[in-house]
User: What shape does this take?
Amino acid sequence: MTKAARIRILDSLCDVMPEQWDRLAGDNPFLQHCFLHALHETGCAARGTGWTPRYLTLWQDRALSAAMPLYRKSHSYGEYVFDWAWAEAYQRHGLSYYPKLLCAVPFTPVTGPRLLAPTAELRRQLLAAALEMAREEGCSSLHVLFPPADETRELEAQGLMVRAGVQFHWTNPGYRDFDDFLTQLSHDKRKKIKQERRRVREAGVEFVRLSGREATDAHWDFFVWCYKRTYRQHYSTPYLNRGFFRRLAEAMPESLLLVVGSQDGEPACAALNIHNGHSLYGRYWGAAGFLPGLHFEACYYQAIEFCIERGIRVFEGGAQGEHKLARGFLPAHTWSGHWLARVEFAQAVEEFLERETHGVTQYVDELRDHTPFKAAT
Assistant: This one.
């Protein structure tokens, strides 16, 4: 990078040409300019929500050389890597944990590059600038959520502590169809899935799989109603609004898979997935009422069928969920990086992470001992 390169902190992506941003972001749909910009423009992750965009960008003349999706946070909601205990420890000592600086995609526990740069040197400069920014702005900490494994080594090299987590992913080695997938499962798992699917069919539920282009306003209205209903059933406030989903349908329609189930001609459930050529990501779902097996059919089995039809290699079913194991998903590590300004708290967190990592490793080993697949698979 030449001396002409300069740092700009952006509170919006309006000043960045989409093609320049997307060139750095690659094919991860959640890092695309249209996805992030929709979060900001519709007010889902904008100033006043606790998500204040502070995008760190490096420029050479008018060309965007590197970028980091950063937010100044006044809470820890919508992150899926939990640091509430750290915030409470600060509070017990009369200190403020917020604001903190966060590198992440809001409300999206999906692994993807966080240091958007083509070279190791630019990534190093990005991270160094982010740490300096955290110090200058009086932030308690810097957190990088769901980076790929190779980025964690770069985080560690600049003093961030690495934290391990677990998700459950389904992989497609080239199944011919859903029945081919079932033949690879152990007898009890195969039988259970068949029973679940049969009960849903016998209840009269039929499904359609729609791209963003094929889904109508009525489909989206029903999906958003389901999404909000599910959040409120769990005593939570839905993060996203109708405007955000409308923007996605307009900006990236072929990356969306909307699964809609109907019972006796009436809409019964809906699930939204986002995908690219090689990965599909389960995001949100909801239903008008309870029906045994409906969640598994709408969120997992319909998506697996879609992946097999399209040759998609990986299906990430979202955060947590041991119940996915019995349905053909296997444990996969996730990562995050953490830097705390106060040395005494950093030392305590480092000791905690050593214990936690040991526990996560044992947990993953135990899960793999209970694989849903036949012993020879």
User: Anything to note?
Assistant: Residues 173-312 form a domain with the Aminopeptidase fold (CATH 3.40.630.30). The longest helix spans residues 343-369. The chain has two domains: 6-166+332-369, 173-312. The chain has eleven helices and 14 strands.
